[in-house]
Amino acid sequence: MQRFIVRRGVPLILALCAVGGAAQAAVYQADYDEGQWQATTPSPLQCELTHYIPRFGQARFIHRAGEDTKFQIRPFRSALKQGSVQLVAMAPGWRPGSGTHQIGRVQFKTNDEWIKVGPGQTALMIESLRQGLMPSMLQEDRDHRIEARVASISPLRFDEAYGRFQLCEAQLLPVNYDQISNTVLNYASGADTLTVQDKAMLDLIVRYIKADPDVSYVFIDSHTDSRGTRRNNRQLSKNRADMVLNYLIARGLDQEMITSRYHGERYPVASNATASGRAKNRRVTVRLEKENEVNPL
Fold it and tell me: What is the reported pTM?
């Protein structure tokens, strides 16, 4: 049978002791006319660059706003077995002698929809493709009766598609929904005005909402610490909530999608017995919600 060995400076596949009747390696890669790359329509929220590996599955580079570019593999059922998968960069058949380079390893579980590769390994895979090499997934089974698997990503037509992917990346927002959907603005004692930093954050929230049509609701909740009377604290929290509400409206948000509430000193998130706790309680939260996840409480 064939064993797959990675050594610095030598070819990846070494044929050892071919045993009659032994299982051969299952090699998956696109032919010349199948080496298609697809870049998604440019979006400020997410960019994708996908590649189909015949009989094996789908591979993609994905760059979500506010995150690093990641590489993911979605194998068909039984294309891989649970366990370790080796990542290497191989020379294609038309570039013999280029050698094989280690990229790393990932773990695959049978209930994983996608195999996810870290940012460092992703960068190496992109660089390999730009050099005309084939980033490949390699897996051998301990049972030598079961064939090894090699799935390779074709560098053919990569450069053009990657150029479109980079144009999409240039339009990405600096944050994604998870990062901005629950924003907290903190205040100095007795203050109700917005700082330069507060306005910059609210501007970013407005940019995100205008870019993501799935955001349907904005909830503003204003709080104070326990210093002062309850009546004064309630009025102070109203002033803070109104200041945020008016700023968002002035920046172009529809008032109909915004719910503004003020709670005074109720609902502390930390102890009012300490200065650090009181600082955390002096806050306005701006929470974004989508239609299918709304929870106003």
Answer: 0.82
